[in-house]
Amino acid sequence: MAKLIKKRSEKAGLLPGALIHIGEKKTEKVTITIIEYDDMHFHEQEAKTIEECFPFKDKSRSTVAWINIDGIHQSELLGRLGEGFGLHPLIVEDILNTDQRPKIEDFEEYNYIVLKMLHFQGKDGEIASEQVSLILGSNFVISFQEKEVDIFHVIRDRIRTNKGRIKKMGADYLAYCLLDAIVDNYFIIMETLGEKIESLEDELVSNPTPKVIRAIYNLKRNMILLRRSVWPLREVIGSLERGESSLIQESTRIYLKDIYDHTIHIIDTLETFREMVAGMLEIYLSSISNRLNAVIKVLTMIATIFMPLTFIAGIYGMNFKYMPELEWRWGYPLILLIMAAVGITMVYYFKKKKW
Fold this sequence. Notes:
Layout: E1 31-37, E2 42-47, E3 64-70, H1 75-85, H2 89-96, E4 103-106, E5 111-121, E6 126-136, E7 140-145, H3 152-161, H4 171-206, H5 210-242, H6 250-315, H7 324-327, H8 331-352
Helix pairs in contact: 1-2, 4-5, 4-6, 5-6, 6-8
């Protein structure tokens, strides 16, 4: 089960900017890939050392560089990267802390963006969250991932095959493409959750079992994680779209507005799903209550029918000496007939009253 809150006890008492990784180690090896391109050229390589990335911070270069780092658990390596690119120590600290809230910070020379990448894991289909950090410079983008994320392969393929306008645009458009890939992945998550909710609704009406209630609580937990990831994202995209950062060109802002609209749509769908899940929980509790009432009703009717019969049997089970009916030849059949008549009459009365 994924943890909603990660432990920060290791950082207690340390100075601001102390570089300590907080979160799970999701890959053994840190992989650094560099893609450099412009309208006519393309070059891709895997860096052996972090120092190979430093030349791409030069603003005089006419190309755009995408430096992607898979694995953020080596704090010393990220510390050297921060020094090489002139990143504030608090930014490097935030990159290492995987429990960050989605946000954006403008440092004039670069923008720091934090997002949450979501995917399903395990047999129960629980949503897992991974942090993606972006550093947007004038001619470079540095992306930090806890492990390699498949959805960015689409962006790489578009650069390799020169599809779309990505190679004709700047680093801000590359950052937009990465943001768009993450937001589009949210739609896949929402579609899968919608299918699960519809399936659970049908099962809830036909057969409300304890398995269903476990699935409902799992959905509620997923909704909480989704809400924590999506709601702050609206502020991030809105700040990029309406901000005054010189790193974002006017030609890119219209694309950011499209992502903002998508984010609003996801939030609206998420709130609808939350209401549906809350309603499903109420339906389950009502169904269980109705089933319990039906059982109690049947037991009550049985007890009510047998109550006078038990009373009659109790009277003639006392074995007093002077009870004329005990000596009468037809006493036993008569008592059985009376008991049967009482039971039938009570059943007829209950049916007439529609109890």
